[in-house]
Amino acid sequence: QQPVQSPQAVILREGEDAVINCSSSKALYSVHWYRQKHGEAPVFLMILLKGGEQKGHEKISASFNEKKQQSSLYLTASQLSYSGTYFCGTEGRYSSASKIIFGSGTRLSIRP
Amino acid sequence: EAGVAQSPRYKIIEKRQSVAFWCNPISGHATLYWYQQILGQGPKLLIQFQNNGVVDDSQLPKDRFSAERLKGVDSTLKIQPAKLEDSAVYLCASSFGYEQFFGPGTRLTVL
Lengths: 112, 111
Fold this sequence. Notes:
The complex is a heterodimer. By secondary structure, chain A is mainly β. Chain A contains no helices and eleven strands. In chain A, the strands form two sheets. In chain A, strands 2, 4, 5, 9, 10 and 11 form a six-stranded mixed β-sheet that branches. Chain A has a five-stranded antiparallel β-sheet with strand order 1-3-8-7-6, with no helix packed on it. The N and C termini of chain A lie far apart (37 Å). The mean pLDDT of chain B is 95.
């Protein structure tokens, strides 16, 4: 039931773009994205609630395909501050509580 | 606005010992979560409270883990007895809406 993230790790040069994917085998109500820097707590980036919805946060945006049970996080013109591990968290459509199941994460490293 | 507070920040114990973690959520946040994060993995939900009631504890190893939330505010998570595989960071989070605010975590090492 844990969502699957890909790739597991990405190394970019500053200014390059990246896409992180998250897929679930369950019907989803929402997808949440968090970023965790080394040694720190996860920080909320955004939530996507509707099929095909896109949201943005600085130069980071995301999409959610409800039918395919997939979400993608897009990082444009990456900055050094974007380094960290990105987690998607999925909430099942038939979940009785607002329970989020996190993926195993995608480690993003940005080089100058 | 003060964030989620947790203590202690670090704890080293031997297997079969007991340990307790404390969490003070953001004021006004009705929902409180305890997560276990093993190195290299995503946070795994152990227990979720809504005010002082348990909403989900399906992944809490109830033979050794217990948690309570007194008066719907502070919460404690206890492990008794600890096993080697309990070594992890224990994160507390609270929320009012969709966004979860995480505390700094307690890093537990079981020797």
